[in-house]
Amino acid sequence: MPERSEGGRGRLLILIQEPSLQPFPQAGEGGARSKRRFRMKPSDERLIDLYLDMLAAERGAAANTLEAYRRDLTDFSADLTEHGNGIAKAESDDIRDYLGRLAARGFSASSVARRLSAIRQLYRFLYEEGNRKDDPAAAIEGPKRGRQLPKVLSVSHVDQLLATARKGMEGDGAIMRRVRAARLNCLLEVLYATGLRVSELVTPPASAAQRDQRMLIVRGKGNKERLVPLNEAARVAMRDYLALRDEATKGKKSSGKATKWLFPSFGASGHLTRQHFARDLKALATATGLRAKQVSPHVLRHAFASHLLQNGADLRSVQTLLGHADISTTQIYTHVLEERLKSLVRDLHPLAEQS
Among this protein's residues, is 298 annotated catalytic? Predict the structure, then answer.
């Protein structure tokens, strides 16, 4: 549903239709839906709920993370039920058979590996809590995956996106069109300046937009907080957006739920959704002359990290800025460092020109 202004009760509404959740995930990259005649057993549901409760209480797992684990483990349980088994009694061969059926259903190696990771963590938890006397998933090897480098936009392509976003703010059109344009420009500037995850980008509180604030407090995975710096362009974009938003809501009543967030919405979450921002970003890419599938919030996060490394940042600093708990996650960007080191040797080594 497109955004619209509604003044029947003297307040500004931004309505966003949320996508509905499917009971089971889509298969692989082809998108063929997995249709099952069997549902998981109540005993399996109880074990999965115990595990998810632990993730939420002890690790601070986000709602999206919990939903993803639930979908993966529900599909695993349904498959076991279909073949006359369940989570409590499954053996290693049952798990291997399930992984083989996933591949037959069209799942990629990375998707199968993700399912196996969820199953391993579930059984490790059940073993440690005494719900199983063994861990049938411990010795199972996942599918071999080729190293996939992150998709990255060039600096010039990011500059073009930013220029198109700023151009969208020009003119004296309807106030809500200008607010939406300023919001998109603000989101884009902040994303490229900080490398935030999209879930972190759309959920900052209104207090995050304090005047001339140079650091942004972000609550990331595991409910952990970190500080990320804001550059001048991001601070200007935020001030422009807030000025237009205040102008649009001047003299109108707003609900407490809407004013809690920096990017409010009257959807169920109360803030702009990551899906809505992704759609806006793809529309911006098309307007810029780039392919829509080439641009996403995560691609811009990769661009932030890669461009920092290209310009001399060290891997540990990038790890901190991205909010990675483990340096191994950040090491997908080592190809950027390798290219930079080659350039240093080529340009600075005294014997380079002789080779």
Answer: yes
Q: Which two structure tokens, joined as six digits, stand for 191?
A: 């994303």
> Does 12 have pLDDT greater than 80?
no
Better-predicted residue by pLDDT, 186 or 329: 186
- The answer on pLDDT for 3 being more than 50 is no
Q: Which among 180, 197, 235, 245 is annotated as catalytic?
A: 197
Please spell the DSSP secondary structure of 255-301, one letter per residue: -HHHHTBSSB-SSTTSB--HHHHHHHHHHHHHHHTS-GGG--HHHHH
Active-site pick, 178, 180, 274, 301: 301
Contact 44, 88 (CB under 8 A): yes
Domains of the chain: 26-128 (1.10.150), 158-297 (1.10.443.10)
Question: Does 37 qualify as catalytic in the annotation?
Answer: no
Confidence band of 257 (pLDDT split at 50, 70, 90): very low
> Of 260, 279, 298, 346, which is the active-site residue?
298
pLDDT at 148 over 80: no
Q: What is the pLDDT of residues 45-98, one digit of tens each?
A: 999 999 999 999 988 888 889 999 999 999 999 999 999 899 999 999 999 999
CB neighbourhood size of 143 (10 A)? 15
| Residue 304 reports pLDDT greater than 60 | yes
With tokens 């798990």, the residue in question is 95
CA distance 170 to 151: 31
Q: What is the mean pLDDT of residues 281-289?
A: 95
Catalytic: which of 71, 115, 178, 324? 324
pLDDT at residue 305 above 80?
Answer: yes
Burial of 48 (0-12, 13-18, 19+ CB in 10 A): buried
Active site residue 333: yes
Q: Which of 36, 114, 166, 221 is catalytic?
A: 221
Verify whether residue 39 is a known catalytic residue. no
Specify whether 101 is catalytic.
no
Integer distance in angstroms from the first to the last C-alpha of the chain? 62
Q: Is 5 exposed, middle or buried (0-12, 13-18, 19+ CB in 10 A)?
A: middle
Active site (annotated) includes residue 301: yes
Task: Give the helix/strand (H/E) hosting 165.
Answer: helix 155-167
Residue type for 324, please?
H
